[in-house]
Design brief:
The chain is of the alpha/beta class and about 375 residues long. It contains 12 helices and 13 strands. The protein has 2 domains: about 35 residues, no CATH class; about 270 residues, Glycosidases (TIM Barrel, Alpha-Beta Barrel).
Length: about 375
Amino acid sequence: MTGINRREFLAVPVGSSLAGSLFASEGDVGWQRRIRRLGQLNMTEHDPVEMNVEEWADYWASLKVDAVQVSVTGILAFYQTKVPFHRKGKYLGERDFFGECCTAAKKRGLRVVGRMSPDLNWAEALQAHPEWFQRDGEGRPVALSEDPRLFRTCMFTGYMTEYMPAIMREVNSLYDVDALFTNAWPPLGRLPDCHCSVCKDLPKVGTIDYWDRFNQRTTYLWKLYDGIAKEKRPANFYFANLGGGIRSSANLVALGELCEWFQCDNQGRGGDDTPIWACASQGRVCRAVQEGKMATNVTGAWSTGPVRWRYVAKSELEQRMWFNETVASGMVPYHHVIAPRKAWVRIAGCSNLRASSSSGQRGTIRISGTRTASPTLAL
């Protein structure tokens, strides 16, 4: 936008060419810089047989969201994938669940972000491609503590340059998506300590040399994925989580030049001595590296305190405080709900939406509504 202060702007006649150029510049920015509400659906394995897609699309539309983030894959595919080792959910059957959600959203004029998680895969992938996975100091594959059937992938291997691009290009070929997003990569807060055949030749974890190699790989993959997103159309882009709290494992200055959207997965205080301004501190970091581009902070409606469980609601006042800190720092609030009952979603989400969306500023609430049929991990 043209450099002009508030008093000078107020003195400009409404019909002047300068005023016209100012408003035109707002319209020229990417769609992601103009959104006011974002809805997220974290799918579970049961959803293809339990969820009414049209009902949920109506729910998103009723909240006046501009875009929805929908699971392409977490640890399971929600569409009829042909990529080897991309396991489909047990209840998917012949249904194209992601495709139905995408179509329903588009019918209502919503943008669609395809959400995927590249950090885990199953034993059959490990057996076929042992080189894709993290190893501990004894050379053993690193299993997920919550479910030992899942194994952690390594970001320095072909998993990220062969397997994930295959999924992204398949999604591009099948669906009218507007952006691609990865959850759980880049890793937040802690650098991966892997001893696979690739990583054993890297500098020691915890050293500056290792951090440099980590950032080189992160930048390379970010550019690769953004290029794949733009194969669909030039306005498309890739983005990912870049911060959980004020710390991040990646070089944010370098990524700030690349990324169109800084997603902060800082969903709330953990019941410790975290101050209320921890969220706003992260917003200041975003503003420093983003230069006016999109930055969102995820606020969880679920309990992030001493009782840390995604099926327990946190205090509404605690949620509003985190939203206020988000807006005060210049970030866009993003409301994340995982709930077994729609009524709970309405209580947790819509009351805060109504309380926070009366102002016309950019910082109105993003509702993230998810429906889970049973206490299953969200994917």
